[in-house]
Structure formats: structure tokens, C-alpha cells
Design a protein that fits this description.
Radius of gyration: 18 Å
Number of helices: 4
Strand order of the largest sheet: 7-6-5-4-8
Shape: flat
Length: about 190
């Protein structure tokens, strides 16, 4: 899910070590557009600190990773034609692409899209109930039992922007700002 097409997956394979060496994790990579002007979108973050679900990604981080990735892309030239590189944070209503994302955001509302029918449909929306082996558990509205969806069947998963998610984002920002102020205050 971190890459959608075979070309995306090759780019993830090429760029993962670059991001990791710079201190980041690629959350998702997409090469979009036709044969003309394409866009390489990379969502990344710093590895989250212990006890936190998500890492941060500042504008400076985006700039730094963009420079590192550009060096490798210029040398390897894996993309034919012109393209624009866009490096960003995953955002508050982030995509969930790795098993650890599904564990970290347990209890939040999520939308899933599958590559095949399960229980007569491809799209699910509900509260994320974590992972059970290689299956994502989701509590669906109006359903008594937790649905289990194989991770391998998921083509798109994203958190739903709602009050709970906004509150978590505000708390995370407040904690980060408090820590930054504490670091800047002389003893």
C-alpha cells in the first residue's frame, strides 16, 4: 500500500534506504499523471517516539528529505520524462499503509477500500480495532461482531477527519510545542 503501481514499488525500494539514512520513514509514495508532466508525491515522517503513534514532519524536514531524494533520483534517473517532486507530511487524516499504522491508530474511525469484494462490498468505514495476525480488525456501524479484513486485500486506508482525530492532533501539537519551549528555556 505504500506504493500503488509496480513503478511506485520500485521507487519505494530505491528511496527507502535514502529516507532511513536521513532519519525518516516513507509512509506513502505515488507517481501520478500521464506521460507528460508527472508528480512524485512522497509522504514521510520521522519515526515516532516511544508511546506515540506518529512522528512529526516539519517544513524543514520536507525540504531536507526532498534534497536527499533528489540527489538519488538525479543520479539513478528512474523516472522517464519530466516530473515534479512533492515531499509532505502524511497529515492529520493520514493514509494507513503499514501494519504498525493500524495498531497505532486503533480506536479511530477509518475508511478502507479493498481490491476485491468482502461481505459483498469493497468499501468499509468504521472504528479501527487493531490487527489480528495479518488481518485488520474494524468495528462497523450497526454490526455486532468485529469484521476482519486481510491486510493484503487493502488498497487504500485513511483516517476519517473528525473531532476525536482533531483533538488528538491538537494534543500532539501542544505536547511538541511544550517540549520545544522546555528545550529552549535555560536552566
Amino acid at each position: 500500500m505504500r506504493g500503488k503501481t509496480a513503478e511506485d514499488l520500485r521507487l519505494v525500494e530505491l528511496l527507502d534506504p535514502v529516507a532511513e539514512a536521513a532519519g525518516y520513514e516513507i509512509v506513502r509514495l505515488r507517481l501520478m499523471g500521464g506521460a507528460e508532466r508527472r508528480r512524485l508525491q512522497i509522504m514521510a515522517e520521522r519515526p515516532p517516539p516511544p508511546g506515540q503513534a506518529e512522528g512529526e514532519m516539519t517544513v524543514e524536514d520536507c525540504s531536507r528529505l526532498s534534497r536527499k531524494v533528489s540527489e538519488v533520483l538525479d543520479a539513478a534517473d528512474p523516472i522517464s520524462g519530466e516530473y515534479v517532486l512533492e515531499v509532505s507530511s502524511p497529515g492529520i487524516d493520514r493514509p494507513l499503509t503499514r501494519p504498525k499504522d493500524f495498531e497505532a491508530f486503533e480506536g479511530f474511525e477509518v475508511r478502507l477500500e479493498l481490491d476485491r469484494l468482502a461481505e459483498g462490498r469493497k468499501r468499509f468505514r468504521g472504528v479501527l480495532a487493531g490487527l489480528e495476525g495479518d488481518q485488520v480488525a474494524i468495528d462497523l456501524d450497526g454490526e455486532a461482531e468485529t469484521a476482519l479484513v486481510p491486510f493484503a486485500w487493502i488498497v487504500e486506508a485513511k483516517l476519517v477527519l473528525n473531532d476525536d482525530l482533531m483533538k488528538r492532533g491538537a494534543e500532539s501539537r501542544a505536547a511538541r510545542l511544550s517540549a520545544e519551549q522546555h528545550e529552549q528555556t535555560p536552566d
